[in-house]
Amino acid sequence: MKVNIFIIGTGLIGGSLGLALKDSPIVNYVYGYDVNKESLKIAQEIGAIDEDVDLITGASKSDIIFLCSPLSRFQEIISTITPVLKPNTIITDVGSTKKEVMQIFESLPENIWGIGGHPMAGSEIKGINGADRYLFENAVYVITPGKAPKEQVDKLIAIIKTTGARIKILDEITHDEIVATVSHVPHLAAVALVNLTEGNKDNLIMAAGGFRDTTRIASSNPELWEDILFSNNGPVLN
After folding, report:
1. What is the CB neighbour count within 10 angstroms for residue 124?
2. Looking at the domain 174-237, which fold is it?
3. Do domains 3-170 and 174-237 have the same CATH topology?
4. Does the structure show a pLDDT above 70 at 69?
5. Best label site of 46, 72, 213, 229, fewest CB within 10 Å?
6. Domain boundaries, the chain
7. Which value, to the nearest 10 degrees, does the dihedral of the CA atoms of residues 30, 31, 35, 40 take?
8. Which of 49, 151, 35, 141 is nearest to 90 (CA)?
9. Which CATH superfamily does the domain covering 3-170 fall into?
10. Which residues contact 134 (CB under 8 A, 6 or more apart)?
11. Residue 184 gets which letter from DSSP?
12. Contact 142, 97 (CB under 8 A)
């Protein structure tokens, strides 16, 4: 049976998911929502979503909901959409931390399943303009099942696999410790290097390929990274 998808947040990851899932043989329709109406307009123009809708409409019509917004908005969004969700709706996310997300998912009512997700993929191009149908091809996609039954976890995995991603099952604690090492601390280092050279033309003139490669990720969305680092501050500081 084909499923309806609702993508909340049509930025880089949400837009890329939409492009990939629109090609999936087990996806019927992709709804989209974003507070940034320009992003939403572009998402529809490039074919990342079939229709832009409000939160209530999208949530009530969908089987699987992807939270692709900043983590700081998750609780507000979930509180808004919970009353209209169909039984056995899956809510998942694409965020870089999992402990806080899984704690939020614990508040979901019976027969609504919160399953953590984290595609280990990205781009230095911010927002919907960086959306790429093949962004997840051969990338690791972490799934954190939480308390969801195997049937629902397998349903989500089947959808994710159609993007070309490779699935890795991790609990939230292990996930957050690993990404602190391989993603969050390196990002902090890149930002620190950029800040050290800011305003000094001589430094930039002398910088070669190594500097550019090391600092490329520093151009990522600052609001998103503020959320990530505050959420995972324990493992990052350790």
Report:
1. 12
2. 6-phosphogluconate dehydrogenase C-terminal fold (1.10.3660)
3. no
4. yes
5. 213
6. 3-170, 174-237
7. 60
8. 151
9. NAD(P)-binding Rossmann-like Domain (3.40.50.720)
10. 20, 164
11. I
12. no
Q: Do the beta carbons of residue 62 and residue 78 sit within 8 Å?
A: no
Strand order in the sheet with 166-169: 51-52, 27-33, 3-8, 64-67, 90-93, 113-119, 140-144, 166-169
Give me the residues paired with residue 118 across strands: 142
Among residues 108, 102, 148, the alpha carbon closest in space to that of 156 is found at 148
pLDDT single digits (tens) 107-136:
999 999 999 999 998 877 889 999 999 999
Structure tokens given for 53: 């809708």
Say how far apart CA 142 and CA 121 lie, in whole Å. Answer: 11
| CA angle (233, 234, 238) in 5-degree steps | 110
Return d(Cα 94, Cα 71) in angstroms, integer.
10
Contact 67, 90 (CB under 8 A): no
Could you tell me how far CA 231 lies from the centroid of its own chain? Answer: 14
Closest CA to 113 of 134, 85, 139: 85
Q: Is the pLDDT of residue 225 over 90?
A: no
Encoded tokens for 185: 């601390």
Per-residue confidence band for 213, with pLDDT thresholds at 50, 70 and 90: low
Based on its alpha-carbon atoms, the radius of gyration of the chain, rounded to whole angstroms, reads 18
d(CA 78, CA 74): 6
Q: Which residue has the tokens 């079939």?
A: 50
Kindly report the length of the chain: 238
**What whole-number distance in Å separates Cα of residue 9 and Cα of residue 57?**
15
